[in-house]
Amino acid sequence: MGNMKIRVGVSECLLGHSVRYDGGHKHNPYITDTLGQFFDFVYVCPEMECGLPVPREALNLQGDPAAPRMITVKSNIDHTDDMNRFCKARIGELKKEDLCGFIFKSKSPSCGLYRIKIYQDSKSRFRSGRGLFAEVFVKSFPLLPVEDEGRLNDAQLRENFIEKIFCYRRWKDFMNANPDYKKLIDFHARQKLQIMAHSTNHLAKMGKLTAAGKAISPDRLFTDYEVNLMEALSLKATVEKNVNVLHHIIGYFKKLINTNEKKEILEIINLYALHQIPLIVPLTLINHYIRKYKVDYLSRQTYLQPHPTELMLRNHV
Ligand code: SF4
User: Fold this and answer.
1) Are 108 and 11 spatial neighbours (Cβ–Cβ below 8 Å)?
2) Under 8 Å CB-to-CB from 249, ≥6 apart: which residues?
């Protein structure tokens, strides 16, 4: 990965570009100023890029929830075919952009990922679905981390999403560097605790997969591994799961640390388990012991630094 910024797609209005139906934007400073230090944004405004002007009449979704139509709210003009044509062409272009994630604008009939209203026969009857572009996007990139900007306000969802983006970048770097069975074993060894923090079931499954890997074709092995990795990281790393990983880590140096050090780290893990201090606190102490006692296996674990410290994603209680 080096110092290269990670390429992440974003709904264009979130960058502060005036592309919305009302001529305005929905600038999200967390995206541009904080994430922008690490991500290189590839922006898309489906409504403008499919040929609609700025400003324009507002649109909504109507009809069959499995294949809704995109219709202007007042004049009843159907823009579904224009939007579908645009989506097909733009997805083809985005496949060449080396994306590791996408941040969608919430509540949009084009970009909305979750709970977008699909009106049935009146304003009061609707079903929930996705915006048209978001729907085509997630079907075309099923493993790519995606999130709705509104949900980035939730500290745990935010951490999970950003962690997944950095992990996906590592996976792509692995696949770009002549992957083989031996390198996969090494890759897996480094991600183990991170996977454990999300899903012990996936960790067990991936352990079996890598152990049997020599008997599987490399293409199948890498594809199955990628699916499991991204599935695992989609499950939340809760406080309870992190506590389990922290205790597991202690097991690696419990014979190296003295009684006082052990007491101190266990007390701190307990405070974290009680939601009184953030995860960064026990991890800082653990990192100190790993350096002090030179525990090589642990020092290579992505769990200890899955994303840049500056993002402060593990500083919430
Ligand atoms: S929500 Fe999507 S379609 Fe609407 S203005 Fe933003 S980028 Fe464009």
Assistant:
1) yes
2) 193, 286, 298
Give the confidence band of 2 by pLDDT, cuts at 50, 70, 90: low
Residue nearest to atom 5 of ligand 1 (CA): 20
Give the distance (Å) from ligand 1 centre to CA of residue 191: 36
Cα torsion angle, 97, 102, 107, 109, sign: positive
134 lines ligand 1 (CB under 6 A): no
* pLDDT tens column, 55-101: 999 999 999 999 999 999 999 999 999 999 999 999 999 999 999 99
Q: Distance from the CA of 254 to the center of ligand 1, in angstroms?
A: 53
What is the distance in A from the centroid of ligand 1 to the CA of 85? 17
What confidence tens digit (pLDDT) does each residue in 106-146 have? 999 999 999 999 999 877 899 999 999 999 999 999 999 99
Tell me the C-alpha distance between 49 and 56, whole Å: 13
Phi, psi at 104, each rounded to 5°:
-100, 145
